[in-house]
TrEMBL record:
Signal peptide feature range: none
InterPro entries, A to Z: Heat_shock_70_CS, QueC, Rossmann-like_a/b/a_fold
Keyword flag Ligase: yes
Protein name: 7-cyano-7-deazaguanine synthase
Pathway recorded for this protein: Purine metabolism; 7-cyano-7-deazaguanine biosynthesis
EC number(s) per entry: 6.3.4.20
SUPFAM superfamilies per UniProt: Adenine nucleotide alpha hydrolases-like
One Pfam match: QueC
Source taxonomy: Bacteria, Pseudomonadati, Pseudomonadota, Alphaproteobacteria, Sphingomonadales
Catalytic activity as recorded in UniProt: 7-carboxy-7-carbaguanine + NH4(+) + 2 ATP = 7-cyano-7-carbaguanine + 2 AMP + 2 diphosphate + 2 H(+)
Family note: Belongs to the QueC family. Belongs to the heat shock protein 70 family.
């Protein structure tokens, strides 16, 4: 009997990563879900990630503590205001230095330990905030690095970083999630939650989320302040 392959899915509890987990499951992968608790401003997403991992039937869900507030340098990990004036050109202050490089490296370590060669991440190069580590060139470079940096790689295994959302609009991501039966009401996107745990409705992430539902022609289940 053939066993379905394992994949490590980076799961933040957001719309994109949840949709990616559903895609990986739909493609026949067994899921190892990795959430990084980097002491982010919006730590409420950790509870959402746990719920999503359970809903997706992940074989294991690891929430790994890694306090990036020790470095700072981002509105998500430092005492810097989250922008509320709309998505602007350039790289915003919500960019966390090298975050996807760090997170993918952790996913790679778990994949190698578990005997998996497939990693899934919800990066998007179309409707996003301009982060450099969401581009196809970065993903290809990471795969090349993984081939050189791991025992499995030098022994001939090839790690694949799957980015099924990379060329999708936010509306297309919402539609794909709906097709796969994902309850997006369980996901969290806001970078600056209100004290009563509602989406602020004004940060880049909230704006992109709402725009996605609106353009997809589907009701937005999010509770915004």
């Amino acid at each position: 009997m053939t066993t379905s392959p394992l994949a490590v899915v980076l799961l933040s509890g957001g719309l994109d990563s949840t949709t990616v987990a559903a895609i990986a499951r739909d493609r026949g992968y067994r899921l190892l879900a990795l959430t990084v608790d980097y002491n982010q401003r919006h730590r409420i997403e950790l509870a959402h990630a746990a719920r999503v991992a359970a809903d997706m039937g992940a074989e294991r869900h690891v929430t790994l503590p890694l306090d990036l507030r020790a470095f700072g340098g981002s509105a998500l990990t430092d005492d810097i205001d989250v922008p509320k004036d709309g998505v602007q050109p350039g790289i915003p202050v919500t960019y966390v230095p090298a975050r996807n490089t760090v997170f993918l490296s952790l996913a790679l370590a778990w994949a190698e330990a578990a005997g998996a060669t497939d990693l899934f991440i919800g990066v998007n190069a179309l409707d996003y905030s301009g982060y450099p580590d969401c581009r196809p060139d970065f993903i290809r470079a990471f795969e090349d690095m993984a081939a050189q940096a791991t025992k499995a790689g030098v022994e001939g295994s090839r790690f694949t970083v799957h980015t099924p959302l990379i060329d999708m609009s936010k509306a297309e991501i919402v539609q794909e999630a709906a097709r796969l039966g994902v309850d997006l009401g369980t996901t969290w996107s806001c970078y600056d939650p209100t004290p009563d745990n509602r989406h602020c409705g004004e940060c880049d992430s909230c704006r992109l989320r709402h725009k996605g539902f609106e353009e997809a022609g589907l009701p937005d289940p999010t509770v915004y302040a």
